[in-house]
Amino acid sequence: MTKGGARKGAGRPKGQGKYGESTKAIRVPESKVKYISEIVSKGLYEIPLYTERVAAGFPSPADDYLEDKIDLNQYLVKHPASTFLVRASGNSMINAGIFPNDIL
C-alpha cells in the first residue's frame, strides 16, 4: 500500500476558494507583506472618469459615457514614503478655506 503523494480528486476544487477563481502564490519582500495584505483586503477604489466635459465653477450633470478609471495614488502620491495626512486645528487658515478638522 502506497502512502502520501497526489491522489486523483483530492484537495479543494478549483475556483472554490475565497476569490472564486484559481489563485497563484507570488513573492513579495517581507517588509511589504502587511502592506500588500491590506491592499488585497480593502481592494482599490477607482473613481469614474467621464468623457463629458463640464464648465468649471458651475455644477452640470455629467453624461453616462465613462471614459476610464483613474488610480488616484498614481496621480497624487509621487513619493509614498514621505506622504501623510494630518487634521488642521485652529482658525488661522479659515480665509484660505482650511477649517478646523479638515484633512491636509
UniProtKB/TrEMBL annotation:
InterPro entries named among the record's database cross-references: LexA/Signal_pep-like_sf, LexA_repressor, Peptidase_S24_S26A/B/C
Domain called Peptidase S24/S26A/S26B/S26C: residue spans: 48-104
Basic residues bias (residue ranges): 1-11
Taxonomic superkingdom: Bacteria
Ranges where the record places region Disordered: 1-23
Name of the protein described by the UniProt record: SOS-response transcriptional repressor
Organism expressing this protein natively: Candidatus Actinomarina minuta
